[in-house]
Amino acid sequence: MSSTRVVVTGLGAVSPLGLTAPDLWAGLRAGRCGIRRIRAFDPTGFPCELASEVPDYKIQDRIPRTWRKAVKLMCRDIELAVMAAGEAIAASGLITKGIDPEKVNVNPTRMAINVGAGIICCDLAELAPAVAASTAQGQFDIHKWGREGLELITPLWLLKYLPNMLACHIGIIHDIQGPSNTITCGEASAHLAIGEAAQVIARGDADVAVAGAAEAKVNQMLMVRQHLLQRAVATRDGDPETICRPFDAKACGAIFGEGAGMVVLESLDHARARKARILAEVAGIGYSHSLNPVYERLEPDGRGLRFAVEKAIADAQIQPDDLDLVIPHGTAVPEDDLAEARGLEAALGPAAGKVPVWPTKSMLGTTGAASGALDVVAAVRAIVESVIPPAKNFSRLAQGCRLNVVTKHRAGRIGHALCCSYTFGGQTAAVVLRAFEGTT
Amino acid sequence: MRTPKTKERVVITGTGIVCPLDNDVEAFWASILSGRSGINRTTIFDASTFPTTFDAEVKNYDFRVHVRRPQLHAAASRGSGFGTGAAAQACRQAGIDIETPEPADGIDRTRMGVYLGAGEGAMDHETFFACIFAGWDPHRQTMASEPCTRLAFTRMTAAYELEQEPNMAAAHVALLAGARGPSRSCLTACAASTQAVGEAMMLIRRGDADVMIAGGAHSMIHPLGVTGFSRLTALSRRNDSIETASRPFSGSRDGFILGEGAAILILESLTSARQRGVPILAELVGYGSSSDAFRVTDMHEEGRGAVQAMRAALADAGLTVQDIDYISTHGTSTQENDSIETLAIKAVFQERSRQVPASSVKSMLGHLIGAAGAAELITCVLAIRDNIVPPTMNLHDPDPKLDLDYVPNVPRKMPVNVVMKESFGFGGQNNVVIVKRFT
Question: Hey, what CATH class is B10-122+164-436 in?
Answer without folding.
Answer: alpha beta
